C-alpha cells in the first residue's frame, strides 16, 4: 500500500504516465515477492511440523527387548483405568514438557554449543561467594513448572558411568558425542550432587544413582587418577598431594601392586607400615588418596539419607526419598525402566544410542590385571562399599527382584563372598564430618537440613 500511494500521488501531481506505469509494475512485483516469501515460510513451517511429528512419533513407539511398552495412557491416569504402571507424570503434562523441548532440540542437538540455562541453584544460595562449577549446569532448557517434589537429583558417582549418563541427561560434562533427548528423564532431572557440590533442592524426593560393580569402579578410578597420565581430563586438583603419596612415595603404580604389597604384604621389606595403611585407607575410602575412592557409594548415600546404615530406600525409617538406579552394565534397560515409571511409554533408549565418554589415558603394562588373590583382598576391604552397592540396587524403585539377582550374579564373578554375605569384618566408617565440610549440613539427621553456616563462616 505504501508504494501504491506514492505512485498515485505522483500521477495526480502531473508526473510522467510512463514513469507512473513503471512504478505500478514494480509495486506489483514487490507485492508478488512478499506473497512468495509468505507462501514459502508457510510451506516450510508445514514441512517442519510434519517432520517434527514423524520424529517425535519415532521416539514414542519403541520396544524394550521385544516387549511393547508404548501403550496409550492418555486419559487413563486420572481415573486409574490404565492396565500399565501408573506414571509419575500424566500424559498431558508430559506432552507439555516435551513439546517445547523437542522444538528447540530439533534446531540444535544439545552438546553442539554450550548454552547454560538459568534456573534456581540451591548451591549458589547456600554458598553465594562460591562459583557453581560448569559441570553442575544444564545445557538443555529448564522448565520451572516441574514440581519441586518431582524433580530428580542426579547423584553423580565417579567412575561408575556417571559422565555417560550425565551427558544423556543434559549436564555440561565432557561429552564427546551429540545426543538427542530421549524420554522425559533428562527434562525432569534438574540438579546434581557430585563430590563436594550439592546443587539439589533440600526436599528432593527422587535421587538417581549411577552404579557399577565396586571392584571395577575402584580399578577404573585407580588407573584414571595415576599422576603420570598426561590427558588433562585425568588430572584433578583435589587430593593431588595425597595422590602422590600413594602412587609415588609408596610406588603403587597398579592396583595389582597395591593389593599384593599393600594388602597382602607380599614384600614386607619393600613396603612400609605407612604405605600398607595408605593402601587400606585408599580402597576403603577413609583416606583421600584417590578422589573417586574418597567420594564413594557410602559418601553419596549418607549425603542423601543422612545415615551410614544401609537401608537406603523409601521404606526406611524417617525417609520419604526414592532411589532410581542406572547400572553401568545395563544403562539402556535401566534408563527405559525409569522412563516407563515417569511417563509410561515415551522415548525408549536403544543400547546403540548410549554414548561412551571415556577419557583417553595412556596405558601402562597390565594396569587392568588383577590376580585372584588380589581380587579377594580388594573385595574384603571393599566389603562395606559392596553392601551399600547392593542396598542401593535393592532399594531402587525402578528395579525388581530379577534385576537384583542379575546384579548379584554378576557380583559373584568378582567378589563371590561379599556378594552373598550381608556383614563385614571392618566397621563401617562414618562420613558425617566429611559431608558437613562439603555441604555445611548436619549428617546426624535423615533430612540433612542445612545449617546457618557456610564454608566461609556464618551467613
**Number of DSSP-assigned strands:** 9
The helix-and-strand class reads alpha/beta
Strands side by side in the biggest sheet: 5-4-3-6-7
The tally of helices reads 18
Helix content: 40-55%
**Low-pLDDT residue spans:** 1-30, 41-84, 106-113, 441-459
Q: Any overview of this molecule?
A:
The chain is α/β, with parallel strands linked by helices and 459 residues long. It folds into 2 domains: 2-60, no CATH class; 91-218 and 292-458, no CATH class. The protein contains 18 helices and 9 strands. α9 (255-263) packs across α10 and α9 packs across α14 (372-381). It is globular and about 70 Å long.
What is this structure's SSE topology?
Layout: H1 2-12, H2 17-60, E1 63-64, E2 67-68, H3 91-107, H4 122-126, E3 152-155, H5 162-169, H6 185-188, E4 189-194, E5 197-198, E6 206-211, H7 214-224, H8 240-249, H9 255-263, H10 273-284, H11 291-294, H12 297-305, E7 322-327, H13 331-343, H14 372-381, H15 383-395, H16 401-412, H17 416-420, H18 432-439, E8 453-454, E9 457-458
Parallel strand pairs: 3-4, 3-6, 6-7
Antiparallel strand pairs: 1-2, 4-5, 8-9
Short description:
The protein has 459 residues and is an alpha/beta fold. The protein has helices at residues 2-12, 17-60, 91-107, 122-126, 162-169, 185-188, 214-224, 240-249, 255-263, 273-284, 291-294, 297-305, 331-343, 372-381, 383-395, 401-412, 416-420, 432-439, and strands at 63-64, 67-68, 152-155, 189-194, 197-198, 206-211, 322-327, 453-454, 457-458. It contains 18 helices and nine strands.
Amino acid at each position: 500500500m505504501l508504494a501504491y500511494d506514492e505512485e498515485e500521488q505522483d500521477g495526480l501531481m502531473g508526473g510522467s504516465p510512463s514513469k507512473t506505469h513503471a512504478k505500478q509494475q514494480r509495486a506489483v512485483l514487490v507485492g508478488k515477492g512478499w506473497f512468495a516469501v509468505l507462501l514459502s515460510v508457510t510451506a516450510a513451517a508445514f514441512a517442519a511440523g510434519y517432520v517434527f511429528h514423524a520424529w517425535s512419533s519415532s521416539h514414542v513407539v519403541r520396544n524394550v527387548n521385544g516387549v511393547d511398552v508404548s501403550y496409550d495412557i492418555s486419559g487413563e491416569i486420572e481415573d486409574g483405568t490404565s492396565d500399565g504402571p501408573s506414571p509419575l507424570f500424566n500424559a498431558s503434562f508430559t506432552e507439555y514438557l516435551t513439546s517445547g523441548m523437542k522444538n528447540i532440540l530439533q534446531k540444535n542437538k544439545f552438546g553442539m554449543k554450550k548454552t547454560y540455562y538459568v534456573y534456581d541453584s540451591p548451591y549458589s544460595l547456600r554458598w553465594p561467594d562460591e562459583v557453581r562449577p560448569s559441570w553442575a549446569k544444564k545445557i538443555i532448557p529448564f522448565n520451572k513448572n516441574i514440581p519441586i517434589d518431582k524433580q530428580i537429583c542426579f547423584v553423580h558417582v565417579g567412575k561408575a558411568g556417571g559422565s555417560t549418563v550425565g551427558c544423556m541427561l543434559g549436564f555440561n560434562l565432557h561429552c564427546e558425542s551429540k545426543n538427542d533427548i530421549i524420554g522425559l528423564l533428562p527434562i525432569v532431572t534438574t540438579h546434581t550432587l557430585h563430590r563436594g557440590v550439592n546443587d539439589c533442592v533440600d526436599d528432593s524426593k527422587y535421587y538417581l544413582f549411577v552404579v557399577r560393580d565396586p571392584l571395577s569402579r575402584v580399578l577404573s578410578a585407580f588407573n584414571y587418577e595415576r599422576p603420570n597420565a598426561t590427558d588433562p581430563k585425568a588430572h584433578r586438583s583435589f587430593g593431588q598431594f595425597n595422590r602422590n603419596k600413594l602412587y609415588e612415595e609408596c610406588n603403587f603404580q597398579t592396583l595389582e601392586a597395591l593389593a599384593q604389597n599393600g594388602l597382602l604384604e607380599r614384600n614386607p621389606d619393600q613396603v612400609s607400615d605407612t604405605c600398607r595403611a595408605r593402601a587400606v585407607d585408599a580402597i576403603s575410602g577413609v583416606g583421600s588418596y584417590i578422589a573417586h575412592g574418597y567420594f564413594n557409594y557410602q559418601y553419596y548415600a549418607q549425603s542423601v539419607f543422612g545415615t551410614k546404615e544401609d537401608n537406603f530406600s523409601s521404606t526406611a525409617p524417617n525417609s520419604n526419598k526414592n532411589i532410581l538406579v542406572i547400572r553401568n552394565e545395563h544403562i539402556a534397560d535401566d534408563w527405559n525402566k525409569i522412563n516407563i515409571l515417569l511417563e509410561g511409554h515415551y522415548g525408549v533408549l536403544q543400547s546403540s544410542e548410549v554414548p561412551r565418554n571415556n577419557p583417553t589415558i595412556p596405558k601402562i603394562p597390565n594396569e587392568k590385571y588383577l590376580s585372584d588373590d588380589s581380587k579377594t583382598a580388594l573385595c574384603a576391604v571393599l566389603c562395606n562399599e559392596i553392601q551399600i552397592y547392593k542396598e542401593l540396587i535393592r532399594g531402587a524403585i525402578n528395579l525388581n527382584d530379577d534385576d537384583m539377582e542379575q546384579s548379584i550374579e554378576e557380583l559373584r564373578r568378582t567378589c563371590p563372598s561379599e556378594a552373598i554375605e550381608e556383614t563385614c569384618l571392618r566397621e563401617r566408617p562414618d562420613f558425617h564430618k566429611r559431608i558437613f565440610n562439603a555441604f555445611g549440613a548436619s549428617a546426624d539427621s535423615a533430612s540433612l537440613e542445612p545449617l546457618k553456616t557456610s564454608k566461609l563462616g556464618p551467613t
